[in-house]
Write a structure and sequence with these properties.
Distance between the termini: 79 Å
Oligomer: single chain
Order of helices and strands: HEEEEHH
Number of domains: 2
Largest sheet: 4 strands, antiparallel
Shape: elongated
Number of helices: 3
Structural class: alpha+beta
Strand content: 15-25%
Strand order of the largest sheet: 1-2-3-4
Number of strands: 4
């Protein structure tokens, strides 16, 4: 006959396995929604200024987020560096370098 502690341990393991599975399913759903939005050229992010939806736009072959409501432009990690690299002697380089 199984020990009561073994039974409790088994129930606890089953509970956490179920919770892990639920969390994995939620993450998969978020990833699916995000991939669908990206395919449509939309961003799931909201404008920090006015909370409207952001749209992805290509600028100098770099995808940036643009707000159609307030006109704000928002850069994700590394996008500014990509733009500066593409702008060899333009205003980006002059504005961001301190020589």
């Amino acid at each position: 006959m199984p020990d009561l502690d073994d039974r409790r341990r088994g129930l606890e393991e089953e509970y956490f396995r179920k919770k892990d599975q639920e969390a994995i399913e939620k993450m998969r759903e978020k990833m699916r929604v995000s991939a669908e939005a990206k395919a449509r050229g939309e961003s799931l992010m909201r404008c920090p200024r006015c909370a409207a939806a952001l749209a992805e736009t290509k600028f100098e072959e770099v995808l940036i987020d643009r707000c159609d409501n307030c006109g704000g432009i928002w850069l994700d990690s590394g996008e500014l560096a990509q733009l500066i690299k593409k702008d060899s002697d333009g205003w980006f380089k002059r504005f961001w370098t301190t020589e």
